[in-house]
Request: fold
Amino acid sequence: MTGPRSAACDVTGRGVVSSLGQSVATFGRALLEGRSAIGELGELGAGLRFGRGAPIRDFVARDHFDERTLGQIDRFTQFAVVAARQAWHEAGLDAGAIDPTRVGVVIGTANGGVDVLQDGFRRLYANGASPKPLTIPQSMASAPASRIAREIGARGPVFGVSSACASAAHAIIVGAGFLRAGLVDAMVVGGTDSCFGEGYMRAWDALRVVSPDTCRPFSVDRRGLILGEGAGILVLERHGRAAARGARVIAEHLGGGMSCDAGDLLAPDPAGMVAAMRNALADAGVEASRVDYVNAHGTGTGANDRAEATALGTVFGGRRVPVSSIKSMIGHAMGAAGALEAIATLTAIETATIPPTIGITAIDPELDIDPVPDVARPCAIDVAMSNSFAFGGLDVSLIFGRAGA
Amino acid sequence: MTPTEASSETAAERRARLEAEIIGFIAQEIQDKTAVLTRETRRDEVAIDSIDIVNVVFAVEEKYDTQVDIAPDSRFETVGDLIDKLITFIPDSKP
Reply:
């Protein structure tokens, strides 16, 4: 279709743990309905400058894990494992369907196990007690990948990756790269983070980039990002393998691009974003003119949205491709964001409907952009792009295509 | 336990009590909750793994306010072997 077939791999499984539902179906439906998970934090936000966020309020760990397992995995790993079970089930790669040595797992996290670390520090500094004995294995950034591998029996390359808000997108690119290199036949990839521990929220408060009201990407009165959390997981397979075994291909991952601003820690550089998007298009063998939809990084900070709109203008040569940010509904899920947004992009392709950007009071006149405000928009999508631009200037752009298009 | 009771305990009684308490910690950690542990129970019979050992060591440290230098990959054959190792780290001064 759009590019060199050898570059593509197939998406055959998806899993979601989000503040808008804990299945792909409920998550996708809520996004297309333009529902917001952002609400008052109440006690959770006591003493903070911001009082709103999008925590996952209905995740009951005991519904998914026995007591012994819970004692071994922190909340961010719980999210990832629950999402991975969904994805693995959807892919239909149960025992016997694949050589376990040809299966890998790469999971991104910005934070690692901040909850168990916080508990440990509280014990240490408040009570003079030792951190609990499994604090290290619970907090390590590779814990989600390791646990998922154990559950599905993956014996190939398994590790964690970290690049702040681009962690999941980097994980997807790494997984796709391993498939293309012929190192594996299937990869479980994505990202996860748990973001509502007191210490972690106070650290964000101190940085002063969190909005005191809500997340309004591309709006003239946007005031910052809103914290979210969750996990998104994809199963990728070597192109053609799923068809050969009679499994459904949800979409094709056509390619991806990476770049680094090599500059400011917090202020994004449009040039880095442009490079990532162009690298992705080149990798996928797709002309910019063929992209029907862009799922933006769209954090709702003044700096990101300005830089991203500028970069989009450069890449798409003034064509106003529809762009939306689901962070307006689920906040910024950090290490999970890139995967949840990739899954939202797949939903857009599958349903031929673009999820909206909600919360826009008036589109910032300085941004030459079509942010699909307020309501979902019907739109046939053959090719879509999903952007992740992290602190530290770490940029990733992913390209997905409609299966068989 | 009151100090009077503690001081009236003989060395043998103390040893038996510590063993029972430690068996309780081990039972709490292992996966098979129906297992009946004795000193003679072999490690592989009840699948005591490295995480169980880490947690039992921690429980003993907390309970007896002591420091236990037993590594997660520590080798032992039976529950009794593990108990004996652990008890060497509990000072006589501790109840």
Notes: Chain A touches chain B through eight residues (CB under 8 Å). Residues 1-5 of chain A have pLDDT under 50 and may be disordered. The CA atoms of residues 96 and 153 of chain A lie 11 Å apart.
